[in-house]
Amino acid sequence: MRLTWAQPEDLLAHEFVQSAAEGKDIAIVRARWVAAGGDPTPAVSGAGPAPATPALRALARELLDELDALPVPHAAEEPDDWEAILALLPQAPDLPSPGDDRTLGAWIGRAAGCLLGKPVEKIPRAGIEEILHATGRWPLDRYFTAAGLPGEVAARWPWNRRSAGTSLEENIDGMPEDDDLNYPMLALTLLETRGRDFTTEDVAQLWLDNLPAGRVFTAERTAYRNVLDARPIPETAKHHNPFREWIGALIRADVFGWVSPGDVRAAARLAWTDARLSHTRNGVYGAMWAAALASAAMVCDTVEEVLDAAEAVLPPGSRLAQAVHFGRKATEGGVRDGLDRLHAEYGDLHWVHVLNNASIIAYALAKGGGEFGPSVSIAVTAGWDTDSAAATVGGVVGALRGADGIGAQWTEPLDGRITTSLPGGEQRIVDLAARTAALASKRGDS
């Protein structure tokens, strides 16, 4: 059985990268792995082409334990504890009071952005551009299509196998299932059942009760395993988890902002509580930033105001803050020039890492100028975590533009529906928006 994001030999290769990024000395452990015949190169798609022998897999588990036990050099500018994070943050911005309800535009925008990126997830930037040129759709301004795509291009850049049958222009029938939508739905349930004082343990229990293990990936899959192994929080985010600074927590955070309109600090605190189940350091800051973006988008008038407000929840010396700044500053010149700069700076990272994707989210928002189509299209043509980055961008711009300002070419194929494997089945977007607005109003009345 080829199990992605879980086989010890695959985790170890990724852990070499993560441990080195944290400043651990991995040389001896890595040399032992290579000498035993192990491959130290991480698998791009989550699992190598062939499973390891029993002996090599046992060694991988042993070496993962050794890497976990290595001391992590102190990084005062990147703490994990909330109070330590809070001590580094600038003063929270004074944002306008909530006005008109923007939750419907936010939900629709998130779904449409995610849907745009689904078929090309895992395809690199060059492949996406070749597909678009071959189908006469460059620059990207609508959903992808296989119509007119030459066979040799399709063979060179195959669509994401999970998504091709439900996310191309010719076969879209509502929003298909995606973890980028499952997690916001779970966040709604969490807040409705546990309130704003929920704990990280509540998040873990919610996953066990509602989320199929096969529908979690990277850090979430590892944390799920660690919960079942009765490991305490925050060890759930650290034990044999090389994905702890990837994008997973960021994609779970929008609802925490939508129910905290204009209060980016409160939104970030909710996101921190959720994220620490599976992530550390910049993985957690990514969730806090996404929640702050969503919070600010509920009350601000422009993308620049949203970006400025959201930066107030980022530890100033963190790599996540640097990635956001880099993305915002890369907007001079054309889109291709900007993407070239982003890839030169962060192209060595895995396509699901939080730093490169945060930089493209910031860039797409700033460069898109508050227009929905250009913003989500930039996020997708960057070629990293296409559906997740575009979902976050879409949620922000959808809130700013409103449901009617997104554009019929993006909204009509959704048909107001989201498929999910969560309990209750398919959801109506208007119902999700109403539940979200009710939670925001309840907070305002308290």
Give a verbal description of the structure:
The protein has 446 residues and is an all-alpha fold. The protein folds into two domains: 62 residues, no CATH class; 304 residues, ADP-ribosylglycohydrolase fold (Orthogonal Bundle). Helices cover 54% and strands 1% of the residues. It has 21 helices and two strands. A two-stranded antiparallel ribbon has the order 1-2. Strand 1 and strand 2 form a beta hairpin. The protein starts with 7 loop residues before the first helix and ends with a helix. This is ADP-ribosylglycohydrolase.
Per CATH, the superfamily of the largest domain is ADP-ribosylation/Crystallin J1
Radius of gyration: 21 Å
Structural class: mainly alpha
Low-confidence stretches: none
CATH architecture of the largest domain: Orthogonal Bundle
CATH secondary-structure class of the largest domain: Mainly Alpha
Number of strands: 2
User: How many discrete domains?
Assistant: 2
